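Chapter review. Work through the record for Gamma-glutamylcyclotransferase before attempting the end-of-chapter questions.
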Amino acid sequence: MLIAVRFWLQVLCGELNLLQVSHSGPQLNSSPALGGNMTGSPDRFMYFAYGSNLLKERLQLKNPSAVFITTGRLKDYELNFGLWKEHVDNSWHGGVATIQYHPGAEVWGVIWSLSIENLASLDRQEGVGVGIYSPLDVSVETDEGTMLCRTYQMNNFHSCPPSPQYKQVVCMGAEENSLPEEYLKWLKTIKTNDYSGPSVLDELSSART
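C-alpha cells for Gamma-glutamylcyclotransferase:
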C-alpha cells in the first residue's frame, strides 16, 4: 500500500512519466511530449525524425520553428519503406519511411524542437487526419540521455521501394546531421523503384540554393 501511494505521489509531482514506466512499449498519443530535458519550454515539443524530415530544409518547409537538438537512436525498431495502401500515388512517387517494431534493431534519427504552433502542420504533413500515420511517444537514446519524443508510424503498411529522389533526401539528411557512418552506408544500399520524373526534391533543391 505504501509503495502504491509513493508511486502516485511521484506521478502527481511530475517525478515519473507514465509512458516511461509502462511495460507495453511506446504509446499512441495525439498530444506531443511537451518541453523535454533539453528545452524546458512548455510551448515546444521534441520530435524524432527518421525519414525525409532528417533534412532541415524539408522539415522547415512546413514547420519553420524546427531547431536541431541532437541525434539519437530508437531501439527495438527498424526502418522500412512503403505505402499505407497497396496502390496509391504520392508526391514522392514511391514508398516512404516508417518505423516498425523489431526487437534488437535500431533506427537512427534527429531530434528537433518545434513550437507547439507547428504541431498541426507537422500532423498535416504526416497525414494524421486522414489516417496515413499515427503519432506516438518514444524514448530515444542520445549522448545527453534518454529523451521522450513525438514520432510517427505508418498505418496499414505495405512494403514498397522508395523513389531515388526520396532516398536521396533521406541520405542528405543523414549526412547533414552526421548520423553514424555505418548507418549512412546502409541507407545508401536501399534499392529504389528507378522513378525519374519530377518530385518534391525539386522544391527542396530550390530551398537549398
